Amino acid sequence: MPKMLAALLLSSTLITPAVADDITAWRLFVADHSEAKLTAFDLESGAVLATFPLASPASLYRADDAVFAVQGAGNQVSAIKTGISIDDHGDHGDITIGDPALVEGVLRGDKPAHFVEHGGKIALFFDGSGLVSLVDAHDWVEHGELDITERDSGTAHHGLAAPWGDYTLVSVADAENDAKPRLGVNVLDAEGNVVGDMQACPDLHGEATSGNMLMIGCGDGLLVVSGSGEPKIEKLDYAGLPQGKSTTLIGGQGMQYFLGNYGADKVVIIDPAEAEPYRLVDLPTRRVHFVTDPVRPRFAYIFTEDGQLRQLDVVKGEITRSVKVTEPYSMDGEWSLPRPRLAVAGDVIAVTDPNEGKVHLVDAESFEIARDLSVDGLPFNIVAAGGSGSVH
Fold first, then answer.
1. pLDDT tens-digit profile of 126-143?
2. Cα 141 to Cα 32, 70, 73, 104, 258, distances in angstroms
3. Rounded CA gap, 383 and 344, in Å?
4. Using CA atoms, how far apart are residues 221 and 240, in angstroms rounded to an integer?
5. Whether the Cβ atoms of residue 75 and residue 110 lie closer than 8 Å to each other
6. Using H for helix, E for strand and C for coil, what is the string for 22-83?
7. Which of 20, 100, 106, 229 has the most CB within a 10 Å radius?
8. Please, how many CA atoms are within 13 Å of residue 93, restricted to the half-sphere of its CB?
9. Helix (H, G, I), strand (E, B), or coil: what is residue 281?
10. Does the keyword GTP-binding apply (predicted)?
């Protein structure tokens, strides 16, 4: 009997799940407007975790547990591990927390600009050469390996490229015109050969992904990309909207929709599946920056030049709440002046305030400023990384 009892106890131990603690961790990564540096903050404590030197001030993007710093003037792109990884197990996620770290491999080229990640592959468009670098996000972040596949758009221009499975969408410009106006998009196969005819997209600018759909902004409408295998591309014109165009697009998360600018003091909610795909939203004053909320999918946030952060209910199609966060930031003057940028970190909306050297943290539920982080220099571009998971 003692042996049988011991066996039963051992069996019970083996099938009993390990005790786990559920924790939430978020970090903010802030790029300076003038200095070539990136600073990582712990959201809860406000402590600086690390500061990373860069080659020039950077635009920031998130993908594959990393932040990618696109340094246009420095002719390079750096990857920084966030130090927070969540392993999805279906019914729960396991979270691993470590130190943020600079990845050794650096992608170099002439004036890197547009960064697109889709399906684990990154496309980086270099405005100075018109070349595109395709790299595997995981191999870059985890191993520092840059096994680059290169594509040529045909001429240097302010363009974009987007991976789509074995295909790549690449912008096309008029090489004979000194202004290099964008004309449309070519689809390239796995060998880099053009598939079909160019998709017309005059004044091409801006792209976003939502769910299994990608959208590209044009002067005469929007290119909507869908399907598996070879991409299916359709033009959605601006029918029903006043004269204008969308040049900045972001994709909904948790709900499939797109949000775009439309004139200086308007945004447009776009759902290509609807009979009337556009809902135009007027703003009290000009728009500075906007983001969607991955935690509360029906909401997006818009910062306007009067210093107000506004909550947009994309289901109702209207502004539902507002809070004054900063002093006014006029949209007059150069487009490149330091102005606030937004990021959503769980239950917090972070707003950079370059003039005051702060990041304001707005509680997403109460929609009031909860606290501020002091930041040296001119805090500008910002991304958030983190989430909730179990630690066994």
1. 999 999 999 999 999 999
2. 23, 15, 23, 9, 28
3. 8
4. 11
5. yes
6. EEEEEEEEEEECCCCEEEEEECCCCCEEEEEECCCCCEEEEECCEEEEEECCCCEEEEEECC
7. 100
8. 15
9. strand
10. no
